[in-house]
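To whoever is on call:

I kicked off a structure prediction for a single chain this morning and the downstream step that reads the tokens threw a length-mismatch warning. I double-checked the sequence; it's 161 residues and nothing unusual in it as far as I can see. Pasting both halves so you can look.
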Amino acid sequence: MRLFAVLLALALPAAAAELKPWSGGPTPALELADLQGKKHSLADYRGKVVLVNFWATWCEPCREEMPSIERLRASLEGRPFAVLAVNLAEPESRIQKFLDTMPLRFPILLDRDTKTTRAWQAKVLPATYIVGADGAIRYRHVGELDWSKPEVREQIVALMK
């Protein structure tokens, strides 16, 4: 039983560290249109913590983590938090077909020429960045993550203080 308690204590900090602190330099620009043609600029979200997720419908881990991103967004509704999901150069019809099966209540932005994805160094999908209220990237996670896990949510909430 004692060994279990030690292992559990060691595992908790590791789980909380799933969001890796960002050390990749200044925050790149992000200004893209959503599926309705409305422009979104990261600068417009200053004062909020923003989860920026780079994804594609052909990426199974991307599809798998979307419900947890929506759960996180819903749990932080009314707080200074936003989600921007940047789709990697797919046809709008394919994106819409995906959204018909999984309704999401955050903007889906279109990176048609992949310039934004490259500027953010999103070389593997999904790639997710947590931008602080000051506009600076604070964390990065590459690969699928359950964004609704309490320890992940706590790291994001801590940035709102």
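Update from on-call: the warning came from a stale cache, not from the record. Cleared it. Sanity check on the structure: Strands lie at 20-21, 31-33, 39-41, 49-55, 81-88, 108-111, 127-131, 137-142.
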